[in-house]
Amino acid sequence: MLNEGEALDRCAELMACARRLGADEADAVYVGSHSESVQVRLGSLEGVDRSESEHFGLRVFIGRRQATIGSSAIDTGSLEELASRAIAMAQVAPEDENAELAPADMLMRGPAPDLDLVSDLPGPAELRHAAEEAEDAARAVAGITNSEGASAGTGGNTIALATSHGFANSYRQSQHSVSASVVAGEGSGMERGSDWRVARHRADLIEAAKIGAKAAERAVARLHPGSMRSGAMPIVFDPQAGRSLLGHLVSAIAGPAIARGASFLQEREGQQVFDSAITIIDDPLRQRGLGSRPFDGEGLPTGPVALIDNGVLTGWMLDAASARKLGRRPTGHAVRAGGTAPSVSSSNVELLPGTQSVAELIADIGEGVLVTEMIGHGINFVTGDYSRGASGFLISNGEIAGPVAGITIAGNLADMFRTMRAANDLEIIYATNVPTLRVDGMTVAGT
């Protein structure tokens, strides 16, 4: 796999070839990845996997025509062929008045900030020990009857980006993970539980045994789910389930959706969308963050921003193309994935915690649901209509009662955001993190 210097040299070579063949402008991206994982099941080694991949993406511009192409071949001859094919594609592409590189005056200059994204990688023996520790802890919990296995993995990425108008930089990331999945109960009454953690530094992972124990705890807690009535009631999302709500917000404020007129938040910029107690931060410069990046997919510097500030929607997340369509400047939210054009994504997103404990948040709920898992994707981003299958626990008279499954929860995201309240139990675990969230006025279709 190429190192950072070699990757930047190849990107420059690829762009130079494209320019020789007739491109007015170009940019090139390299993504190299390697990973290793160990899987165990029922105390026995089940698999050891290692993989490496390298991918170049090239985007060329001929006037207002553009084309993007990718390849996993990295030798000089293959890069020349890649450039030739990109030029041929661009020559027959339709004209696009927004087809340009990001503004040159906005490019990141100087060295990339050090975000502490790289750490030493463990060997197979250490990975196996972590996987066994997680599964052993899970299987030791009373009520666990079977295991789907546990795994531990490690790996890393090298990302390099160069543009023909003056940007060239790179960075590296490492990644460590542990997961476990086990089964409780027998026959038709079986329930599954899982847990996983991932971090840039292995030292930031919690103990593997705690991950296994949490997976088992979830499986046992779901045994013998009951039914419940249908009706309007408060829904409480635990942090695992609630993270998806921030994903829906990000999709609704992404520049391409706004430029197409395909978002239920289209006319809400600068307006109160959430309660004034809600603030949502996107921070690409977080040290050791899973979503951290020193520059975006078009070479622009990144920085923290409040997507929602005291309930107010501050603006859109824009790449260069969507910014031009909207008559604006890009916001540093572009991302690249090899042979595709830039798209828009958040980085490290968190909904800041409220002041109430979870117990206080649910204390006045006579009947409601604590949602811990959701299935399906019944979301219309044009209207905001929301409907998903769910399971979790009944809330009765302010207390968590028995498990429920096979229900559907429904509402409208605009209404859900407006009534959302947050507990004080935020933990920074993943790239997107929320505390326990309460949304009033949703509809439950029971079983």
Automatic annotation (TrEMBL):
One of its GO terms (biological process) is proteolysis. This is TldD/PmbA family protein. One of its GO terms (molecular function) is metallopeptidase activity. Belongs to the peptidase U62 family. Residues 26-90 form the Metalloprotease TldD/E N-terminal domain. SUPFAM superfamilies: Putative modulator of DNA gyrase, PmbA/TldD. It comes from the Bacteria. It comes from Croceicoccus ponticola. GO terms for cellular component: cytosol. Residues 126-223 form the Metalloprotease TldD/E central domain. It holds the Pfam family PmbA_TldD_1st. Residues 230-446 form the Metalloprotease TldD/E C-terminal domain.
